[in-house]
Amino acid sequence: MLLPLAAGCGAELASEPPAGLSPPAPASTGGSCPAGMAYIPAGSFMMGSNDGADDERPVQRVSLGAYCMDLYEVTVADYRRCSGCSAPDTDEYCNWGKSGRERHPVNCVDWNQATACCRAQGKRLPTEEEWEYAARGSEGRAYPWGNAAPGSQLCWKRWESKEGTCAVGSYPAGRSPFGLFDMAGNVWEWTASRHCPYFRRNCANEARVLRGGSWSHFEPRHVRGAIRPWTDPGIRSFDLGFRCATTP
């Protein structure tokens, strides 16, 4: 399902969170992660959903080793410090070059730009398995905050107002089981994974899986933790950004 897409990076908020917020304590204090990242302990979960599209089936148990993920989506300010990273697009609703958007997620970047930005910091894009586990936890929440329908826990329903993205970390009530912000809404996030059927995990498809939903959506099904739309790695969109991961 292809939804319509209406120095280093990722470190600034480790020491300087959005006004009035402090980075949450990771769910586990084991392991060692760089500043600004949450430690996700090894574990297993039931990946997928019977409530969504066919490509979310069959629901299957997935086991993962420990890893780290950025607490926040990579911001404009983070990306600006990435030496050698090419500039994002600057169309309407793109945050690059817009006043007052330094703490908003960098958007209008393609998969290769996101990959390069993570790599510049010694990180990588998360796989979709890592992303879903970080968003839903071992209990398989429908949304990062739980199973309650989305309301004021996330940055969404902003298309009619044309407000665009929100500053990262603005919705602490929407944090995931491991303390990550904005795992639903704000911007879709690139993953490292090719879009393959769950019954055949390796395929030659070049399209990459997106996760998380965005500011422009207004239907609960589009911000579920299991939803997995895809797009070409060369696409740049105003509702598409990323966060990074690494192995401790």
Compile the SSE list and pairings.
Layout: H1 12-15, E1 37-40, E2 43-47, E3 60-64, E4 67-70, H2 76-80, H3 111-120, H4 128-136, E5 188-194, E6 208-211, E7 230-231, E8 240-241, E9 245-246
Parallel strand pairs: 5-8
Antiparallel strand pairs: 1-4, 2-3, 4-9, 5-6, 6-7
How many strands appear in the DSSP assignment? 9
Strand content: 5-15%
Fourth CATH level, the homologous superfamily? paralog of FGE (formylglycine-generating enzyme)
Shape: globular
**Structural class label:** alpha+beta
Rg over CA atoms, rounded to whole Å, is 16 Å
Poorly predicted spans: 13-29
How many helices in DSSP terms?
4
List the quaternary state of the chains. single chain
Approximate helicity band = 10-25%
CATH topology: paralog of FGE (formylglycine-generating enzyme)
Q: At the first level of CATH, what is the class?
A: Alpha Beta
**Into how many domains do the coordinates divide?**
1
